[in-house]
Amino acid sequence: MARPRADEAHACVVRSDRPTLTWMLTPDSRPHATTGILGKDLGDEYLFYDSAHERVHVLNATAREIYLLCDGRASVLDIVRRFGARFEIDDARARRDVEETIDRLHSLGLVDPA
What we know:
The protein is of the alpha+beta class and 114 residues long. The protein contains three helices and six strands, in the order E-E-E-E-E-H-H-H-E.
């Protein structure tokens, strides 16, 4: 599998008109996948079907990596550290990419704070 580029980390390719939600994301937040949405890991992408809203969401490889780290056990700070190490990027860049991606995943209904 080709290594995803770090500059794609927060780019979620989606087909959705769901409004953006606001929530408080802190370094101690432990985001986790929501229930009720069908998902399929395709290796380089992650495909979701939200049957309640009849929406399809597709995450690129780096957004997929962040989504998979949202297991309810890892804090946002843990996710930032793992993501930064995986893609060999500085902490500030990793934090920005992770926070933007988690916020977008939340707005799509794919993750919730824990």
